[in-house]
Amino acid sequence: MFLTQTTSRQREILEVFLRNGWDYMRRLLTGGKTDEPQLPTPAVLRNILVDLGPVYVKFGQLLSTRPDLLPAAYIEELSTLQDEVPPVNWADIEVVIRQQLPQSLESTFSTIDPRPVAAGSIAQTHKAVLIDGREVAIKVQRPGIDAIVAQDISLIRGVADLVARTEFGQMYDIDSLAEEFTKALEAELDFLREASFTDQLRRNLANSRWFDSSQLVVAEIYWDLTTPKLLVMEWLDGVPILAADFGSEQNGQDPRAKRAAVTSLLFRAFFQQVYIDGFFHADPHPGNLFYLKDGRVALLDCGMVGRLDPRSQQILTEMLLAIVDLDAQRCAQLTLQLADSAQPVILSRLENDYDRMLRKYYNLSLSQINFSQVFYEVLQVARNNKIRLPSNLGLYAKTLANLEGVARLVNPEINLLDEIKPLITDLFRRQLLGANPLQSLLRTALDLKSLSLQSPRQIELLLDRVTSETLQWNLSVSGLDNLRRTMDNAASRLSFSVLVGSLIIGAALISNNAQTSELSWLSTILFATASLLGLWLVFSTIRSGRLR
Asked: From the candidates 68, 283, 301, 327, which is the catalytic residue?
């Protein structure tokens, strides 16, 4: 039983469940009889996570990236969780900084603002100036947070182990999900990982054919000062994008044009990340998108990223087109291609579910369709049909939803179809011809040349074998022996039937022409023999079970 070795933290968790009225989890943790798992309402689940503390708030934020597991109402509620906690005293933070720096604090920084610009459950950020005058942001891990995370991860795994014993837990492979989430929480403690993600995004977005890369910024990492518990990066001076001032017409500026340019830049940048690079910033909420004072847009907090392999990229591109075309049959086929397991699925039911889901969009213009909402509903249909999809699709859907939400808030007049069409066209061209059409053409020409040189020789060998009688065909037909035995039995019975019939006819002819008692006696013997053979044939046929 989970509470046989009770700790104060376990008692605290149980009290939170009781206080918020989640009876199912209370029965599960105390070893009582449980029915089918019942989630609390979205608001209650959010309150439970907040009451449990910062690590569980982070856990809730991770859950909000999995619309493939939870209905839209839960995703929306968990997305409002704010990772904000009271900051740690500067004296304690200073100790961590001094421990992590390769040199003394005084020889590295000329100034550090002791007031944090942001404070979260894992770390807090301060503005500082390097000794050479460059402004930087330093992200410092909270003292002792690794021990707290380790304790809470142990409890999460314990609860997951209990849930995994239920039918619900087995269907959704709760143990694997818990392992995935706990690894994500552990990864939050390694700032070198976030630094490498930031650096890779910065390199990927440094050049693009889809947008002006000089207008998009990802912070530069100062690797000589960065450690697993200290992240030092370029300071980007700006405000969250929803608080940005895009100018006014009185000052000779066109705010509508600027808003349109910003949203177009964001869409093109994220489409490149998702469909070309296969490596994307997976948390583009308004707080992580900054509008800088010089008019550029910055991507912040690259700790959560998603990855897509080329096959998934192609399927998701086709899924986007299927949604635009409101094609239920194609949506069903693509969902099965994306499926993470080979569970049996009733295709007709899946197609009907998609048809009912898409039907409500038939009378809307494409500019009115919320694509991220439709994709959430696609995931809901898959979940209802017990189809498990890869976890990276949850990050993809959440990223799409965040991006579309921010774009509509920044520029309410945006037409998503106009933004998507040229990108989709270019995507299919790249998928057909590759990034370098000339190189792809030359490779195809070489393949055709190789085929043309090999084909005559292969045809010559085939004809030579046919004419020299050295060509052999090896065929293996399943069930051929059974078929042969069945035909043999049928032939035997047919032969016996013909023999019995012949005996009966012969006996009848002799009896009809019998002139002496000897011939009459022979007729009787033939009738008796025919009768015995006939009875044996009938008996054997009935016993074999083939008299149907």
From this structure: 283
